[in-house]
Description:
The structure holds three protein chains of three kinds. Chain A is mainly α.
Amino acid sequence: xxxxxxHAPALVIAFPLLAAFLVPVVxxxxxxxxxxxxxxxxxxxxxxxxxxxxxxxxxxxxxxxxGGSEAGLTLPSGYTVPIRIxxxxxxxxxxxxxxxxxxxxLGAIYSxxxxxKHSGLEKYYALLLLxxxxxxxxxxxxxxxxxxxxxEIASIASVALIAFRSNLSGEPAEAGFKYMVVSSISxxxxxxxxxxxxxxxxxLNMATIASVMKFTQLDKIALILLVTVLAMKAGSVPMHMWTxxxxxxxxxxxxxxxxxxxxASLYALFRIIFSLYNITLNTITIxxxxxxxxxxxxxxxxxxxxxxxxxxxxxxxxxxxxTGYMLLGVGVGIAVLANPIALETFGIKAMEGGIFHIxxxxxxxxxxxxxxxxxxxxTGTRNLNKMGGLGNNMIYTAIFFIIGAAAIAxxxxxxxxxxxxxxxxxxxxxxxxxxxxxxLVSILTLASFVKVFHSAFLGPKMEQxxxxxxxxxxxxxxxxxxxxxxxxFGLFPDLxxxxxxxxxxxxxxxxxxxxxxxxxxx
Amino acid sequence: xxxxxPYLAVALLIGLGIYTLIYKRNLIKIAIGIxxxxxxxxxxxxxxxxxxxxxxxxxxxxxxxxxxVLPTPQALTLTSIVxxxxxxxxxxxxxxxxxxxxxxxxxxxxxxxxx
Amino acid sequence: MNIGLLETGSGNWNAIIWLxxxxxxxxxxxxxxxxxxxxxxxxxxxxxxxLSGNREISKEDSHVGASHIYWGFTEALKRYYKPxxxxxxxxxxxxxxxxxxVMAIIFIIVGVS
Lengths: 522, 115, 113
């Protein structure tokens, strides 16, 4: 058991990666068990992630040195800097890892029934496992070049998955092309910043760079490059225009996993600002830049969402808007990072709100995309003008949609209300205007989901949808699991904040705890 | 003797790549622009490891008393070149599918997904 | 009742007490409503929906489509929506243009301060 715990970081990457290359072999033997095989592998990964979370969240980070003589030996004899690739999982990393594990497992279960009419499924499942590997690597790594490699793995896998349905019409290929251009620019700029760090400090390990960081002009350039491109990968305005295209054309289970991939880029942005730089940078400037990006994302995202006719484009604009909430919460935390009194009073609370919102958003946005996928599976269209009266036939889908829509609008007792309340109350103490704009955006969010519910589910039964039945059981299981998590997190938010979110926030703020684990010579 | 000339070349390559991405309207030219940026960043990584008057970082039968250039950026660049091959292959095949479905490669026509 | 109590730094929120109060108030509302008048005359105008005096053509025709639901809202905010929708061109050159523009603006801001 303890040897599983020592090697768990490598197992979490190795299982999906090896399974991705075994999928074509398994599909040669028996085509029907592909989905179940992938779901079992991802379920195993979820189990290992949960075991790691139980150990890491109380405050013991986990180190894994690839190629070292033992797993925790960061400084071999005679060396003063770590020379190998190190996976450094602290509370914030395992927080994101939990989100990725849950979302990819439920995506694989949903795909068992959703993709059953497609051919070429071995390519789909192999790419899904590669995407999961890329996301896990992005969240667990402690080495900045390794982060670039996993970022590229995730981007390339997701481009191929977005363009998966391009046999009938050309729009998925167009969305895939746009996403590829945008993510190539961002990955190459990340590599340029890695080169800037290496040229000055001669090390690639994030904790070591953090301990020798002097904030020179070149470091400023690297910071600006990283902030811009990682905010773009997370989908913040004004660089958000790839988000509606990519999220609407991908299959519904892949959209749910893409949302988690965007959150992984957001996690990398926070990791770089908090653990690489911390208070050496000018926190008020960077904090206000992130707050302005967050405000623009919230407002423009939701106002563009109200006028959409396509159900998944509408939900994708809402994903942009909710990313604004996370940027707002953590931006307020950055702006008061150098001010210990304000940090104690409302800074930590604002960051808790923002980071709690990341997990809540992955859950309810995933549920909403899965219900949109269920509607597409039964009716064959994503256009809201053509749908109507489906609530008579698809009762479970309607109930799950109500739970997801109430959670995203911030209605008690679901989890969206808990995290939004924390953001409103702490951001109000920083600057009242920001909180007022956030509340306005919440009202418009509710308005657009009332529109979707009315057009798709309410109304009399339409002629062409007479024979529409409920969706198959595996899709219902995935949606039901997410709905259970939403209700549980809504009823017991204090347990989630105390045991999962607060350790993550403290791991981000204390840079010394991040560097001491590697350089203290474990 | 070399001075700062490689860094000038890097700035030129990345600038030309960004110009191609913003102003050229053919999808294949956009793919070439991405390749230009990638070549610029690879050149930047290799140049970082250069030390004046040093030899290649190979230990077998190395002459005595000479420094070696840093080998780590060369490993980083190799990884980046391989990733660049995969990226270029994928982006060109997606462009082929777009040409088959839309009949044109002009970015002003390939925008059915707007607003 | 400490198990569900979330402290937000300037107040408390308890979802379980909210749920219990919702159920109590809901049950009392339904009980009060059940003591009302429950007779109605069938097959007269009392059972038809009121559409501002217009005739109802059919049930399927009265379903307002998705593009027409918020007509008043979008019409009132037309001066904001027209340039905003025009900015979302869908052209890949514009996507790269926005990234470089935002990078340049942040360069200037961080460089000056």
